[in-house]
Amino acid sequence: MGSLFYLRVNDRLELRQRAPEDAEELFALTEANRAKLREWLPWLDACTKVEHTRANIESTLRQAEAGTGLAICLWHDGRIAGVGGYNVIDRANLTGHIGYWLGAEFEGRGLMTAANRALVAHGFTTLGLRRQTIAAATGNVRSRAIAERLGFVQEGVLREAEMLYGRSVDHALYAQTVSDWARAGGGVGEGAGSRPVPRAMGVADLREALALWNASEGMGLSEEETEPVLAFFLARNPGLSAVLRAPDGTLAGAVLCGHDGRRGFLYHLAVAPVWRGRGVGRALADFAMAGLRAAGIARATILVYADNARARGFWDRMGWAERDDILILQARP
């Protein structure tokens, strides 16, 4: 099985794929919210002990391995606040069906909206989905409000769509297409309603990333940094480097990141001039640092030209400390 899904939404909220070690805390959250959840979710009577939660997590891991679903926990300040993800991913039609619930004590903070906004961006970019849906009982006002805040369009009502403990409920069906999402800003820049959302860099991104880095003032790439070499680097450091694309598909920014098992390194971070000042650089840096933390790396380094005042100011604002007691030495093996 590959590495588990992880996405840092902001300083206090993370999305992590459900794992067996989450079972006890997730079951405790379910127990604490059983009466509330039973109003709109059909599975509560089949989940009465932690073993049931653990079995469900194992099932969702198999589903994720097959590419037909993605079950996540929302972690807020180090605690499980709720769940979300794709109940089903229809690969043939490139459609993801989203489901979610939140513990009562975490409501009213915008957590589920923020989590789903990040998930939707991941679905349209990294997963390549063309359409995402949310179905909620017509009487479930809170759940429907999340879909509407995300800009999903109600396409209709599915009559008698679900049986809930002996009663039948209708579902309001909401959907968003990738073109809807792009027109709304695609998670990038002003008017998107959220922080910019990067995704992991792939080999197909390297040519544009190299062009951006080479065109950026104050940056210097060595002659060894070619597409084949960097493709090898990405394979050795999966999921750490990132790109962020504008709604029209052009590259807004890119960062190269890796580690040696002990220390992390950010090699290049650049933002296209038109996208500067909109949080793209910070989002890319946060993506890379979150990946390093998830890999157990405690410290990271970046090399910056001494005369690059813009870059030094950026990293200073990010909380990075300059060192004046180290001399960099290089040689060819």
What can be said about this structure in brief?
The protein is of the alpha+beta class and 333 residues long.
What topology emerges from the helices and strands here?
Blueprint: E1 6-8, E2 13-17, H1 23-32, H2 34-38, H3 50-65, E3 70-76, E4 79-90, E5 95-98, E6 101-102, H4 111-125, E7 131-137, H5 141-149, E8 153-164, E9 167-177, H6 178-183, E10 199-200, H7 206-215, H8 227-236, E11 242-245, E12 251-259, E13 264-271, H9 280-294, E14 300-302, H10 309-317
Parallel strand pairs: 5-7, 13-14
Antiparallel strand pairs: 1-2, 2-3, 3-4, 4-5, 4-6, 7-9, 8-9, 10-11, 11-12, 12-13
Helix pairs in contact: 1-3
The N- to C-terminal Cα distance equals 36 Å
Number of helices, where a helix is a run of at least 4 consecutive DSSP H or I residues: 10
Instruction: Supply the CATH architecture of the largest domain.
Output: 3-Layer(aba) Sandwich
| Global Rg | 22 Å
Total domain count: 2
Share in helix: 25-40%
For the largest beta-sheet, the strand count, sense and barrel status come to:
9 strands, mixed
Q: Kindly name the structural category.
A: alpha+beta
Order of helices and strands: EEHHHEEEEHEHEEHEHHEEEHEH
CATH topology of the largest domain: Aminopeptidase
Q: Which residues sit in consecutive blocks of at least 5 with pLDDT less than 50?
A: 189-194
What would CATH call the homologous superfamily of the largest domain? Gcn5-related N-acetyltransferase (GNAT)
